[in-house]
Amino acid sequence: MSKSQPLETNPTLSDPASVHRALAERFNAHDLEGLLALYDAEATLVPTPGAVVAGHAGLREALTGFLALRPRETFVETVSVLLVGGLALTRSRWGLTGTNPTNGAAIQIEHRGVEVMRRQADGSWRFLVDDPFGGDR
Q: N or C: which terminal CB in the chain sees fewer CB atoms within 10 Å?
């Protein structure tokens, strides 16, 4: 696992699109702590359509589930960003190549996400609401 820079010293998280890029990089590095650092303290995540988790423990469990796919070649493309004060409504297209943890078969997934990010006191951005499947509907 690679170590991530704290958000307050990471100039690459200065806009919402950079958070998308960091998300892909940290998935490819299998960096759970780095992924968690991309989420606001009050964040909510939709790990599967219809399921919602919030709080550090819920996020950790959900992200661990994604990492069980042993993601590689992960990408997150920013489709749109709407800035309103300290919030950003974003849409993304993302995908990864991985391995099914049950049977070892190769998998390739691609979805469209909808996210709300919040600007932090230090000027960096973090996910407040992350629905990786929200744009599929």
A: C
- Structural domain boundaries enclosing 48: 13-131
Hey, what's the torsion of the CAs at 35, 24, 88, 90, to 10 degrees?
-130
Domain-located, residue 4: no
Residue 6 lies in a domain: no
Give pTM, 2 decimals. 0.88
Q: pLDDT (tens digit, 9 = 90+) per residue, 18-56?
A: 999 999 999 999 999 999 999 999 999 999 999 999 999
Contacts of 29 (CB under 8 A, 6+ apart): 1, 2
